[in-house]
Amino acid sequence: MILAASKRPISSLIFLYPSFLQAAVPAARRHESSARRTTKRLRVKPDPSFIPSTPTNQLQDNVIFNPPSSSPSPYHTPAAFLPPSDPRRSLLVRSHEHANPYAQPNKRLPPPMQKPIEKRYHLKEDEIAEIRRLRQKDPDTWTRKKLAQQFDCSEFFVSMICEASKERKQQQQMALDDIKARWGKRRTYAREDRQKRRVLWARDE
Q1: What residues contact 81, with CB distance under 8 A and at least 6 apart?
Q2: Residue 160: CA atoms inside 13 Å, Cβ hemisphere, count?
Q3: What are the per-10-residue average pLDDT scores of the chain (205 residues)?
Q4: What DSSP state is assigned to residue 81?
Q5: Which positions ≥6 away from 17 have C-beta within 8 Å?
Q6: How far, in Å, CA of 195 to CA of 65, rounded?
Q7: What 3 state SS string does the chain have?
Q8: Beta carbons of 87 and 80 less than 8 angstroms apart
Q9: What 3-state class would DSSP assign to 150?
Q10: How far is CA 101 from CA 106, 111, 124, in A?
Q11: Taking Cα atoms as reference points, which of 66, 60, 69, 63 lies closest to residue 47?
Q12: pLDDT of residue 1
């Protein structure tokens, strides 16, 4: 019987160690050389169709349509890229009709999830004057919600017919400033960033 010498070092043969020494054997770790090979293989060059052939200073706005290599489908190809005589245009129209069956004129819609709210104009001039008087007299007790429940109307309607006094606004502003003073840097930055986004939304940017 011929015994061939193992090319692996004895320290790597864990099964030869006793059971109480196997836990002390160091496990294999990934070194910098293997990590470099892994990241290098993940670096995939972009498709040539995405690389502009013109210089960067002469580029203009254009549309790049590079679909994956598959069978043509009206769901994947936009109508702007289909010729007028292409039969896929009719298939695309039929697919839209099938996707939205309620687009037909004589098709009945499903019942609403909530009961529609009907506007009511039941409050008279004396009741509106009473709402304003209570709101000006004690805004802490007669809040918008309580007035809406008392006179059977919406809080938005209460805010339309009566406005809070200047003292009430100052109290609310002081309370808000006190809350903002306890904010940290992260929350302060988040609120400022939210205000900037709202301004950009209003500008459609």
Answers
A1: 65
A2: 7
A3: 52 55 54 67 68 65 69 68 82 70 68 82 90 88 90 89 84 90 92 91 76
A4: G
A5: 25
A6: 36
A7: CCCCCCCCCHHHCHHHCCHHHHCCCCCCCCCHHHHHHHHHHHCCCCCHHHCCCCCHHHCCCCCCCCCCCCCCCCCCCCHHHCCCCCCHHHHHHHHHHHHCHHHCCCCCCCCCCCCCCCCCCCCCHHHHHHHHHHHHHCCCCCCHHHHHHHHCCCHHHHHHHCCCCHHHHHHHHHHHHHHHHCCCHHHHHHHHHHHHHHHHHHCCC
A8: no
A9: helix
A10: 10, 15, 46
A11: 66
A12: 45
Map tokens 């006190």 to a residue.
Answer: 178
Q: Structure tokens of 64?
A: 């790049």
Return the closest-CA partner of residue 63 out of 78, 43, 47, 44.
78
Q: Residue 37 corresponds to which tokens in the numbers above? A: 């090979």
Report residue 8 as tokens. Answer: 């692996």
**Lookup: tokens for 16:** 């030869």
